[in-house]
Amino acid sequence: MGPDDMHLWVLRELADEGTKLFPIIFEKSWQSGEVPTDWKRGNITPTFKKGKKEELWNYRLVSLTSVPSKITEQILLETILRHMENKEVTGDSQHCFTKGKSCLTNLVAFYDGVTASVDKGRATDIIYLDLCKAFDTVLHNILVSKLERHGFDRWTTQWGSVLGPVLFNIFVSDMDNVIECTFSKFADDTKLCGAVNMLEGRDAIQRDLDRLERWACVNCMKFNKAKCQVLHMGRRNPKHNYRLSGEWIESSPEETDLGVLVDKKLTMT
């Protein structure tokens, strides 16, 4: 249950009455762009992600909210996703909140390409990037301008702050316009890779990193450089160094990607 102490069982038993009342509330909220105060509250519980358990930033806060609020968000989500699909707002690189895509499709599509490159004898580098508190630091005015650019009406833009995780796909969709290497996103989890047998490959990856850094500056975002890593794969890998905001990105023998541990031999566990 959320902070309204309204159990799902109660809503199910009173479904006939609820179908008369909730549409009125939903429509009023949607057209006014105002969210009921109770829907903004949540029972917060920390969920451990990875790393040292004694460090606070290794926990993700999960909010248990009102069930009617979740129903409204689901209705809006379906409409927004349909619009995004029809307008082709998000590119092939995005796998989160996208019909027919998931963590699994992200991993399979990306590492199929990496495996094919390594099997051809090409040294390949993967850069794992992490945006600092991505969902918390998105500026509302920038998000609204991007929504309007993609044809969303004012009601959607007013609800944008509530549907942040969904609309984050739109916020980062223009990343694809600046990248020349292989690029993959799952919400804010971003990675790019390229063959680096030749110096041109290394330079292409560095150019992409510079472009992403400029994108972050324009959109008032920051990369968490401490969590950005490079994984060198393939035999005779020259193990190039890469910079992000003037600082070298550390190399790692393995990296956890969407819950899967990947090492430089392309072993996944």
Automatic annotation (TrEMBL):
A Pfam family matched in the record: RVT_1
Entry-linked InterPro entries: RT_dom
Domain Reverse transcriptase: 53-232
CDD domains: RT_nLTR_like
Protein name, entry field: Mitochondrial enolase superfamily member 1
PANTHER family per record: REVERSE TRANSCRIPTASE DOMAIN-CONTAINING PROTEIN
Origin organism lineage: Eukaryota, Metazoa, Chordata, Craniata, Vertebrata
